[in-house]
Write a structure and sequence with these properties.
With 593 residues, this protein is an alpha+beta fold. The chain contains 25 helices and 18 strands. 41% of the residues are buried.
Length: 593
């Protein structure tokens, strides 16, 4: 049995399990999933997959896409943010979830799988306790609605995986889940609801669920559950009230838990159904859990208004998942590496670099291993992990998996928003609107308005305050939620485009501080150096050195001039000679003090 998240791949009996329930899976999709799982972490090209599963037979590559769509639907996997199957454009696929071995006999037990799932969760004790308290209230007949919010990769799905198992085990609840998928939800009414109902009808209470739906809400009966003689007259428009009644009937004697993930992508009809389930007055052992990303909700998003109204009326509760603290990050790393003693500095480095995001942390850890910065002692496959190279932010790079994930998020934005973010990445994790305006040759007020609008729409950008400029104007400044986003945005620009924008920012700095450029000369030099404008970088460093001397900091001046001399080596001929002459003049002035 190969275990990943809440799933078990039973290679002996060739079937898939989730939380003790068998999931119907045809032989070929099973074979595709098995091949990916058994080659976890490796790119599987289209040709390799076709050759492995259809040897000596020509098969259209399009068949793989069909099977991937089916597998993603069964696994609740979003191709834009894959937890299991990652698409590598024009090349193939990669299974990215952690895989472990589990005894095959555990597959069919109703409560088995939970220990492996529990082990995958770190530092969510209070959150689990809260969800269990809501399940306990539902078991007493008090219907409950809980919104779970958190950014991408923070662990919402992992928490819900664990809670689903606990609800079934500890509260004898029937759990059904629906995954909202970007692009699909808005075009197909009730997409996650239909998925949850299919699970409900395939559960241990499946016969009861099918009978109840047939009697109370026949329009909602899943297609695969309809009898051959199912009447066409029953194909009326789905009435939310009928489904509410059917669910309440099912939840009369035994708790029912409905879990909807990524409801920021849910269709309006699904949101209306969640609203109806929360507002109805009849007693029901019913708990609805809806997880979402807050930064994907703009001011006009229907979920935002629905949530605020239900919370204000005390018809729901909200649970926020925060980034992991450093101690919890250490627990995560010990679990992933399988050892109690971590290499010195690893916990602090990954916590700082990931900013407490579990998904980012694991990707960074795997990247360090792939790059050889972490390795087994003595090359022994069972030996402890130890540090082989220093951990340093500037040299770490962005793991390929995360770079692709972040890149997909960025590609979904409008071209104007992408340009805005690229320009912002040229400054630092924190950046002012005036610098974005300078890089893109925009009006500063328009740039600030655009940054404000973007910060309201994407979760990885925040407005942090207002700065007063030397000319009396003010400019808002912003910060990237994760430095990794900034790095990906920086690298996706061509060198020539970056150079032009860096020069514009440096020139704007100089004009803002006209008459006292020395105060910002060091920062100007950084932009000129990034642009490869060596002559201007040397001039700026000399100005910064003069400013340091005026402040009485001779050591700082020496460091700046030494850097200027190194940059001058990139010049040739008269340009290099002139730069070195200027540097020597500044050194002489320093020594004369």
């Amino acid at each position: 049995m190969k275990q990943f998240a809440s799933f078990g791949l039973d290679t002996t009996n060739e079937c898939l399990w989730r939380e003790g329930e068998q999931i119907a899976l045809a032989p070929k999709p099973f074979a595709v999933l098995r091949y990916l799982v058994e080659n976890r972490g490796r790119l599987i090209t289209h040709d390799e997959l076709l050759d492995a599963l259809w040897p000596e037979v020509y098969v259209q590559p399009q068949v793989l896409r069909t099977y991937m769509l089916e597998l993603r639907k069964l696994l609740g996997d979003d191709p834009a943010e894959p937890r299991f199957i990652q698409t590598v454009p024009k090349r193939g696929y990669c299974f990215v979830a952690a895989v472990s071995e589990a005894p095959d006999e555990a597959a069919g037990a109703a409560t088995d799988g939970a220990p492996a799932i529990r082990a995958a969760l770190v530092d969510r004790v209070n959150e689990m306790a809260f969800l269990k308290s809501q399940a306990e209230a539902a078991k007493r007949g008090q219907r409950r609605l809980v919104f779970v919010k958190g950014e991408a990769g923070i662990g919402k799905t992992a928490l819900l995986d664990v809670f689903a198992g606990a609800a079934a085990r500890e509260f004898a609840a029937t759990v059904a889940r629906g995954q909202c998928v970007q692009g699909v939800g808005r075009s197909e009414d009730y997409y996650p609801v239909k998925e949850a109902l299919s699970q409900l009808c395939a559960s241990a209470r499946g016969e009861e669920a099918r009978r109840t739906l047939s009697a109370v809400a026949p329009q909602w009966l899943p297609e695969q559950c309809r009898a051959p003689g199912w009447s066409a007259t029953q194909q009326n428009e789905r009435a939310p009230g009928d489904l509410c009644g059917a669910l309440e009937q099912l939840a009369a004697a035994q708790p029912v838990v409905l879990v909807f993930d990524d409801v920021q992508w849910a269709d309006e009809a699904t949101l209306n159904l969640i609203s109806a389930l929360a507002r109805r007055r009849a007693a029901a052992r019913l708990l609805v859990v809806a997880a979402y990303r807050p930064r994907d909700l703009d001011t006009a998003h229907p979920l935002k208004e629905l949530k605020q109204d239900l919370l204000m009326r005390r018809l729901g509760a909200e649970l926020t998942l925060e980034p992991l603290e450093r101690m919890a990050m250490g627990q995560l790393l010990r679990r992933e590496l399988g050892q109690e003693e971590l290499p010195p500095g690893l916990e602090e480095f990954i916590h700082r670099r990931s900013e407490g995001n579990p998904l980012f942390a694991i990707a960074i850890l795997e990247h360090l291993i792939a790059e050889g910065a972490l390795a087994r002692r003595g090359g022994d496959a069972a030996g402890p992990w130890e540090q082989r190279a220093r951990f340093q932010d500037g040299e770490a790079g962005v793991p390929a998996e995360l770079a692709q994930l972040i890149g997909l998020e960025i590609e979904r934005l409008a071209p104007a928003d992408q340009r805005l973010l690229e320009a912002a990445s040229l400054i630092d994790v924190a950046f002012p609107a005036w610098a974005v305006a300078a890089a893109l040759e925009m009006d500063p007020a328009e740039a600030e308005e655009a940054c404000d609008a973007l910060a309201r729409r994407v979760y990885f950008l925040h407005r942090c305050g207002q700065d007063e400029l030397p000319d009396g104007d003010s400019s808002a400044f912003y910060v990237f939620a994760h430095s990794l986003y900034r790095e990906v945005l920086y690298e996706r620009q061509s060198a020539a485009r970056r150079a032009r924008r860096h020069v514009r920012i440096a020139e704007r700095l100089g004009s803002l501080f006209a008459g006292r450029e020395g105060a910002v000369a060091r920062e100007m030099a950084q932009h000129y150096e990034a642009a490869g404008a060596w002559q201007r970088a040397c001039e700026a460093l000399c100005a910064a050195a003069r400013n340091a001397l005026e402040r009485g900091s001779a050591d700082e001046a020496a460091e700046l001039l030494d850097r200027a001399r190194r940059l001058a080596a990139n010049l040739s001929g008269e340009g290099r000679a002139a730069a070195e002459l200027a540097i020597d003049g500044e050194l002489a002035a320093r020594e004369g003090l």
